[in-house]
Known about the structure:
Blueprint: H1 6-30, H2 35-59
Amino acid sequence: MNDDDPRQVVELLKAEHRRLDDEINGLIELGAADQLELARLKKRKLLLKDEIQVLSDRIIPDIIA
């Protein structure tokens, strides 16, 4: 895989975002996580979302027609 291809990086980040979402939901359902751990995971998830958006904007520029 070419790390310079933003599309591949976006797909990897999306997969990590989904994994974190599943982990957060699983911990909430089990009641097995403390609030600090959940906050850490949610923060990481938000950072991934921001990074995905930045890369997506680079792939598909906002062009006003």
